[in-house]
Design a protein that fits this description.
Helix content is 24%, strand content 36%. It has three domains: 97 residues, Thrombin, subunit H (Beta Barrel), CATH 2.40.10.10; 117 residues, Thrombin, subunit H; 97 residues, PDZ domain (Pdz3 Domain), CATH 2.30.42.10. It is globular.
Length: 377
């Protein structure tokens, strides 16, 4: 009796082994292909088509002197020559994104501030003119409307539910139109912190950057106004500013939460402006008062904002707030300085509820009312 495997048997076994190897290699390639198309790739594919490059042009009039004529007049001891008047186009470039099927584009106010005209460039290369709908300097948001129809637009997340550490993607055009390709670029990072309040001096002018989203996703000049997107491809914020000693990315980028941005955009679309929220009083920090003033007004708390001016026909007065009351909380947020009230007020909208907790010479006082609009001057 012979034992063993014939040559044909060896060939068959070898063929099966080769087939198994080929099948395993194919499966491995499929796994690699699947891993490349991860959640971040899908998120970018969902949001990027709605991101645009904004070119805003400001025409400036300048008075300049011809150096040749200056030398001519000076040689003859005559007065200075007449200045030449010329117009110069100054272009600012930023990003934005479509927020609805009507063609409205959300961006930062500082991107288009002072512009005389401009265009938006879509990722497919189309260049389209836009109308300025309105803007709000304090929240640094503006709404444009592209001339045309059938534009792709983004989906939104609830920015109040952001998690520190979750993935986010900054989409925008840091190079403007320097690149021949109009498609936006992306950078990936995480949510580093939420509810960040930036000092008023940093924002500059009237800008109040409060409740900001902090991210280490690279946000560079030109990214301003573009969307910050979560791993589901939904917009969570509007990329707005960076902290940098060099002017470039250093891992400290900030975005306006989309929940606030959407409310501001809706106000602008509906009224052409952000309606000014109004409480009807002014105050001074307790810490800024002298010992004499504190005793004279019988202040019983160490920190807060004492009401120094209040109008009778105002929401706060009608709710019971009076001169000398020391506000210690506003909508469950501690208050120690008038700037705290400014920040909290500018995060409110006409019709929102306000709850003030104050101290009136040792007696707790609670005032409840709704925000009214400050009448335009």
């Amino acid at each position: 009796m012979r034992t063993g495997i014939t040559c044909d048997g060896l060939r068959t076994v070898g063929l099966v082994a080769v087939c198994c190897c080929l099948t395993g290699a194919a499966l491995a390639q499929d796994d690699i292909a699947d891993s490349r198309r991860n959640a971040i790739v899908h998120a970018i594919e969902a949001a990027a088509p709605a991101v645009v490059t904004i070119s805003a042009v400001d025409i400036r009039t300048e008075r300049v002197y011809d150096p040749l004529m200056e030398d001519f007049y000076r040689n003859f001891g005559l007065f200075r020559s007449r200045p030449l008047v010329r117009r110069r186009a100054v272009e600012a470039v930023g990003s934005g994104f479509f927020i609805d099927e009507a063609g409205h584009i959300l961006t930062n106010f500082h991107v288009i501030q002072g512009a005389d005209y401009g265009t938006v460039t879509l990722p497919d290369g189309r260049e389209i003119e836009f109308d300025f709908v309105g803007g709000d300097a304090r929240t640094d948001l503006a709404v444009l409307r592209a001339k045309g129809q059938d534009f792709p637009y983004v989906r939104f997340a609830d920015s109040d539910k952001l998690l520190v550490g979750e993935w986010v993607i900054a989409i925008g055009n840091p190079f403007g139109l320097m690149m021949r390709d109009a498609k936006p670029s992306v950078s990936v990072g995480v949510i580093s912190a939420v509810h960040r309040r930036v000092r008023r001096e940093v924002g500059g002018g009237e800008r109040l950057y409060q409740g900001m989203i902090q991210t280490d996703a690279a946000i560079n000049p030109g990214n301003s106004g573009g969307p910050l997107v979560n791993a589901a491809g939904q917009v969570v914020g509007v990329n707005t500013m960076i902290f940098s000693s060099s002017g470039g990315h250093q891992g400290l980028g900030f975005a306006i939460p989309i929940n606030r941005a959407r409310r501001v955009a809706q106000e602008i679309i509906e009224y052409g402006r952000r309606r000014d929220p109004w409480l009807g009083f002014h105050g001074e920090a307790v810490s800024a008062l002298t010992e004499y003033s504190l005793r004279r007004m019988a202040v019983q708390v160490e920190a807060g904002v004492i009401v120094t001016e209040i109008l009778r026909n105002t929401p706060a007065y009608e709710a019971g707030l009076r001169l000398g009351d020391v506000i210690i909380e506003m909508n469950n947020e501690p208050v120690e300085h008038p700037a705290d009230i400014d920040y909290l007020t500018w995060d409110l909208f006409v019709g929102d509820d306000v709850i003030l907790k104050a101290d009136r010479q040792g007696t707790p006082v609670i005032s409840r009312f709704k925000v009214k609009e400050l009448a335009p001057s």
